[in-house]
């Protein structure tokens, strides 16, 4: 079944997966099939530019859907064709995009959604691209009512919703927010896909071609709206440090570059709910003693070597050709299933009260778990934020996960995406 005639007045679908043939798109499609089936509460379809590849993806759903798999709607659209992505927008409440690197392929769909009023979410971790989308299309999204939610994967839902959860608990216990929150990746296991590598290399290329971008990327508040009023100096945790709360050495967390900016934007969009002098940073725990220090040194050196290699054209070419996974490649199904993450949050209030929480997830963080998290962001947007067929609770604009969503999303993540949110003390 291929949909070809959009109805601009009544959307056919609650949700369309755009880029269903990508590595994450295939995992997401399988997850939606296993979670919602075809004739349940969520009416959904898959979309992309290759009908034959989409049919292959649909065929892979037979174990989950049986013969019903052949009835999953397929829609054709090229990410570079404005008319085709606009036609997608006319057929659905929400579009979830897995077409990256977003800096290369994502803009036409964001523009179409912002202008048409169609809600949108993705799993980008590209701060420079998000900044451009904000500058170009936030006004249009506010006017049309489109809710645009970036970073709905491992970056940045565990961080953003983890801080949201801790702050809600701080309000219950202390009667006020925690002015300092430290996120620490305690443990994790997972692979990396060619799509993620391609996004990282694209960012590196942009930085090398545009020195002014380096200054923007050094600003922890670069994604906050104009007039945000934040000036608190932030610790970037860029070297080896010692965490005195958890008694461990730490190394830089590569996802902190996007996660910290999303958390600060959430604070701004929620009217300084965490305070105007809120401090937030992220790092990886490597253990105590000499072993912990060596682990932190090796991890810090490895990140530095990768970034240096990606910055230099000859070594970047060698990495792309011979070392790094290609787009479409990634962790095996076994690796996706066996992966996990365990993240700790340490919150401290101005009067010295401390709270420790954790967010845990089953499945490879970047892919097995990300697909489930992204699926619940998209389905939650389509089902929880409409009432009697009309949008409710949030106006149009560019949101973060923790400014768009609330406790309903946390419940979804716990009940349907194998995440847990817990208070440890």
Please describe what this structure looks like.
The protein has 425 residues and is α/β, with parallel strands linked by helices. The chain folds into 2 domains: 13-152 and 368-408, NAD(P)-binding Rossmann-like Domain (Rossmann fold), CATH 3.40.50.720; 157-365. 46% of the residues lie in helices and 20% in strands. The chain has 17 helices and 16 strands. It has helices spanning 23-36, 51-59, 62-65, 82-89, 102-105, 107-116, 127-144, 157-174, 194-209, 211-217, 256-269, 289-311, 313-323, 333-338, 365-384, 401-404, 407-416, and strands at residues 13-18, 44-48, 74-76, 92-97, 119-122, 147-149, 180-189, 241-243, 248-252, 279-287, 340-348, 354-362, 386-387, 390-391, 397-399, 419-423. α1 crosses α15 (365-384) and α9 packs across α10. Residues 1-8 have low confidence and may be disordered.
Notable traits:
single chain; 425 residues; Rossmann fold; 7-stranded parallel beta sheet; 16 strands
Helix and strand layout, with pairings?
Elements: E1 13-18, H1 23-36, E2 44-48, H2 51-59, H3 62-65, E3 74-76, H4 82-89, E4 92-97, H5 102-105, H6 107-116, E5 119-122, H7 127-144, E6 147-149, H8 157-174, E7 180-189, H9 194-209, H10 211-217, E8 241-243, E9 248-252, H11 256-269, E10 279-287, H12 289-311, H13 313-323, H14 333-338, E11 340-348, E12 354-362, H15 365-384, E13 386-387, E14 390-391, E15 397-399, H16 401-404, H17 407-416, E16 419-423
Parallel strand pairs: 1-2, 1-4, 2-3, 4-5, 5-6, 6-15, 7-10
Antiparallel strand pairs: 7-11, 8-9, 9-10, 11-12, 12-16, 13-14
Helix pairs in contact: 1-15, 4-6, 6-7, 8-11, 9-10, 15-17
